Amino acid sequence: MAGSVYKGDDDEAGITDINVTPFVDVVLVLLVVFMVTAKLIVSHGVEVDPPKASAGGDVQSTLRVSLKWAADGKPCEQYVNGDRFTTDTDGIARIQKIAAASTKPKAIIAGDRRCVYDGVMHLIDLTKKAGVTGIALENVVP
Fold first, then answer.
1. N or C: which end of the chain has fewer CB within 10 A?
2. Smallest Cα–Cα separation from 83: which of 93, 72, 74?
């Protein structure tokens, strides 16, 4: 009979089956949207002028390693607390001597904006080789 009801069906019972297909579809769409936007955010870059900043905090340190612009096209000069050094071993020795006076030494790295970024990275490497792992980059607040 076309309109008959199966005698085992109970119209008053609730639906006990859960359809997860729409949920999976929504989750997959969100995953794709997240992957696309993350790719766009990471690949987008801007040019910056690192020595300038609008804000910054004070770092207490007795160790300052700096890179200063040299006149007449000479390479940038390297300093530890105002004392110039020319070789890496001399710089590491000076950093270690100053860092030995502190229990948790921190170094502030400062670079002239006219110097090459490679020079700043070199100063960071020298500081790490001297055993100082607490490093902050100095910024100039206009």
1. N
2. 93
Check if the beta carbon of residue 98 is closer than 8 Å to that of residue 38.
Answer: no
Q: Is 2 left (phi over 0), alpha (psi -120 to 50) or beta?
A: alpha
Stated pTM of the model = 0.55
Structure tokens at 77: 């000069």
Mean pLDDT throughout 70-94?
Answer: 84
45: left (phi over 0), alpha (psi -120 to 50) or beta: beta
- In this structure, are residues 43 and 36 in contact, taking their beta carbons and an 8 Å threshold? no
pLDDT at residue 48, as a whole number: 36
Burial of residue 96, with CB atoms counted within 10 A of its CB: 0-12 exposed, 13-18 middle, 19 or more buried: middle
In Å, how far are 84, 88, 111, 124 from 137, measured between CA atoms? 19, 20, 9, 9
Spatial neighbors of 88 by CB under 8 A, at least 6 apart, are 126, 129
